[in-house]
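Reply to dn_fold:

You asked what the input looked like. This is it:
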Amino acid sequence: MSLPTADDLFRPTAVHAVPDAPEPAAPEPEAATPLVPSGRVRHDEKMTVYVTSDELLHIEHARLSLRSAHGLAVDRGRLVREAVALVLADFDANGDDSVLVRRLTQE
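and this is what came back:
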């Protein structure tokens, strides 16, 4: 049995940690292009969101309901990404009349 060498253990995990040249800016999405959630892919960006215990219980209840009633095994991150995509699509389509604007202006 041979053990891994130090080079194997400490090899770089990315080809370029910092890009050599700036990447071209992504084109602006058209207004008619629907926002599609990313689903189960590797995500390079991270955002931390704090929720109340009641909100977390609602998310968990929805996740478990999706599994029991629909046979969909999704994690909390995917559930939240889907919910965000739905709200943002409604905002893009309806603007001032969107659910997001109505709820935020009720506070």
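The chain has a mean pLDDT of 82.
Hope that clears it up.
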